[in-house]
Structures are given as C-alpha cells and as structure tokens.
Amino acid sequence: MKFNPTKYSLxxxxxxxxxxxxxxxxxxxxxxxxxxxxxxxxxxxxxPRNDLEGLYRYADWLPISRxxxxxxxxxTYKSEALAAELGLENLYITFSGWWPKKGxxxxxxxxxxxxxxxxxxxxxxxxxxxxxxxxxGNTARAFAKVCSDNGIPLLLSIxxxxxxxxxxxxxxxxCVKIIASPAGSDYFDAIALADKVCTCERFMAEGGAKxxxxxxxxxxxxxxxxxxxGRIPDAYFQAIGSGTGAIAVWENNLRLIADGRWGSHKMKxxxxxxxxxxxxxxxxxxxxxxLVEMTPEQARAAAAEIEAKVLSNRxxxxxxxxxxxxAMEDAGGDMFKVTNDSLxxxxxxxxxxxxxxxxxxxxxxxxxxxxxxxxxxxxxxxxIMLNITGGGELLAKSEKQVVYAKPHxxxxxxxxxxxxxxxVEGLF
Length: 428
Fold this sequence. Notes:
The chain contains 14 helices and 18 strands. By secondary structure, it is an alpha/beta fold. The protein has one domain (1-123, 211-402): Rossmann fold. The strands form five sheets. A six-stranded mixed β-sheet has the order 4-5-16-13-14-15, sandwiched between helices. Strands 12-8-9-11-18 form a five-stranded parallel β-sheet, with helices on both faces. Helix 11 (340-354) packs across helix 12. It is globular, with a radius of gyration of 20 Å. The model has no long low-confidence stretch (mean pLDDT 95).
C-alpha cells in the first residue's frame, strides 16, 4: 500500500524556532545552545490508523516517509496479579516484547523495535549511505532485525562484552555489519567508535536521542496506553539508560493535552536506574541540570557491576534543552535507584504474578514501582502506567531457533579515525 509521508515541521526546544526537516535534521543549525528538536505534526489529534499495521497505526505522530514490514505496536493491559500484590487499583502495564497470548509480537523482545521501525521509516530509500547505530545491546538487536528484514545497509557498534545481546531467529542479511569496542569497554566506547566511523561521508549517524524519529517511536508506548485506558495516566514508571523513553512519553503527553480529549494533566515521571550506575539519579537528587562527575574508569566499573547492562549510558541527554531534566521539571515526579538484589526479586515476582519473563531493565522499573508504593509516593487509586520495555525472551527462545551474531571487527576506539574508517569501509 502506498504511504503518504507524514507532514511535520521541527521546533528547537531551546528557543521555539520552527524550521523544515531537510531529511535527517538532528539539530537546529541556528541554535547556539545544546538542544533537542521536536517534531510538530500537522495532525493535532491523536488518530490511530486502522488502515496501517503494527507500529504504523500511530503514523500520524511519527516523522516517517515510508512504512516497513514486520512491525508490532506495544500492548497495554490492566494488571490484576501484580496490582493486587502492590495494592493498586489502576495499574496498567504497557508491554513490548514477545507474548502472543497478549498480542505482543516483537521478535527482538524489546521496545527498541519501536525506535528502529520509526527511524528506518524516516530514512530515505535512496540515501546511498550506511546507517550507523551505537548500542549497549537491545537497540542493536532491534535495528539489526529491521534493517536485515528490509534490506537497509547498517553498521552496528557495540561493546564486545555485550555481544550476547545479538541473538536472532535467523541469520542476518549481508547488509548488516557489526563492529565492537574491546572487552572491558562500555557503551560510551562503542559510541566513540561509531562517531569516528561517521567522519566518513559514506556513513550516517542515526543520532540517538537527537533523532525525532527515535523519540517518537518510543513515545508510542504512551499512545498504546492512552488508546487502551481512554485517558492520560497519572504516573509513569520506566527504567532508563539514556532517559530518551521518558522524554518521548513526556513529549507525547504534551501532544495529547493539546488534543484536549484525553485529559489536561501531565503525568508524573518516575524513571529508575540500576545501582551503582546512577549518574542521572545522583544528578536529579542534587537537583542539578549538570550531570555529576563520572570518570570513564568509574563508569566502566559500575557498568560491569549492574545486571541491567543496557542502563549504562554515561553521556545521556539529560542536561540539554528538551532533555530529561526539563521533562522532569515540567512534569514532576522523582527518580529511584534499584539494587541487583531488588531487580532479581521483582523479575521473579513479575514472572510468577503476570506469567511472562521480563528483561532486567523492566525488572528495575517494576522494583521502582514497589518502592514508590512502599514510600507512598503514589496513591493506590492513581492511574499508573508501568512501561515494561522488554520481555518474553525466554518464551521466544523456547519457541524459536536462536542464532547469535558475531562482530566482524573488534576495534579500539582510541585508534585514529582514518584507520577505523579504512577498516570499516572494507566490510561494505
């Protein structure tokens, strides 16, 4: 079916300057300060599209020029067992993963698929460039699947220690190549490696949180919740590595308020981190826009210690205009930190109560909700959205053949950019 590109403009979060997207604009060229840009859609009403499949039912609020095959939207349902355990009357779980019983068919078992289908839908078909994505794990798996299935040239950069995250139900298409930073490195090292590759014009940085398609893809979680519940939730819980998902739901919350049919309130944001990697938690508790100091050595040590490895971004989009600090200041809420022991406790309880396995990051979010209830941060009758950002992996692996990808090259990010580019160009 032919798809008419979504109509939108871009707005600088720092000064409100509006401008047209040139196809892959990641920032306002006229803005002097660090800032995200936000998509402003011609369609002001929340209008799920029954004529489009999967994630693309939310295409009116996605900055895309085409649709791709194989997507699935997040699924929201009202919890009974976990809600009873916590003494909550209106707990809604938005689930992204593999759970056919609930209508969830994300083959990579992560809400990172929402990013990948949106970003790749924004990517022009004839760009002639190789998309470059740096990831701690789940994002890499999602982009690899989407690009492999749709023949989109992709270079992934991932820490070698996280390579086990690259499992699939079938071998990847040759259009997908993988490079890794060495053992003992972290997500930021993988980003540094990707940045050096992108000094060559043949390669195009995906952009991370700066890419409006990534954020608005992730923002479909609240669209799923609002479509099911019929109103904007009062409180939102999610584990964060970069905080991009929390920024995304805040932005869609603002769009829903402008619509006027789903409520006029901002839901409070309750993001959480896995201790001891708590750079945003520590910054927020000091009410500091600037991130607290964290040396590369401290970051690598903390990343090695946490069980939710994907929550280990030491340079998140927290401080810049439109980033997580601004989202929290505007919406209200608080941050939590969760130990590995608490993570494992609630991972087990979620499986027992709700009947599906969840990823470590999702268990961090569940544990933070339990903390909030114990501390009476939320009331038992509030409408609460718990974003389970990944799950069903054990179920999926029990039902499918599993194939693990290997890095084509392991490269030290401290090598000169020219040397890294020469090595990577040879893969394509």
